[in-house]
Specification:
Layout lengths: L3 H23 L5 H30 L12 H5 L4
Amino acid sequence: MTDDKSLFHRIDELVAEEHELRTKHTSGGIDDQDERTRLRALEVELDQCWDLLRQRRAKREYGEDPESAQARSADVVEGYIN
């Protein structure tokens, strides 16, 4: 996943999975714990995708190669303070 288009595609997939998961939970197709576990994993991956996209945009804005942006670990991305 190195270009913006791929990142947006993955983000769309993750959001669709989140909606599907919530629908399954509402209809009783998945229990609370399974929903929470998978939602947390989706949230982390979404945060990583958005972080990589922001890195790519910043590098492009400042004349650097966006291909040099690297995905950061879940620990790093989830450790950011707003």
